[in-house]
Specification:
Elements lengths: L5 H20 L8 H23 L10 H26 L2
Helix pairs in contact: 1-2
């Protein structure tokens, strides 16, 4: 069994607070330039980071040396879906 790392637990807490803050911040971002950019930056970063940190505790892939390959796999999928989402979102805007 892995020993808890307080650094990663604190990082997960900060990311959970960012989730709440980002949802609260959503109402203030309508067509306000910098605020909208900050909202999208936070929204793009906080959930994938939270998922990666939570996934670190889920299986024992760190000791088996598979963590780098799995990280690249998830990063590739994230970039693929983010680009396709951005493409379709930009095409649907009038």
């Amino acid at each position: 069994m892995k020993e808890r790392d307080s650094y990663l637990d604190n990082a997960k807490f900060i990311l959970m607070v960012l989730v709440v803050f980002t949802h609260f911040f959503m109402g203030m971002t309508e067509k306000r330039g910098v605020y909208e950019d900050l909202y999208y930056l936070l929204f793009t970063i906080h959930m994938p980071t939270f998922i990666l940190i939570s996934g670190y505790f889920s299986k024992n892939v760190v000791n088996q040396g598979k963590w780098l390959r799995k990280s690249y796999h998830f990063l590739w999928l994230y970039v693929l879906f983010q680009v396709s989402y951005s493409f379709f979102y930009s095409k649907l805007q009038y």
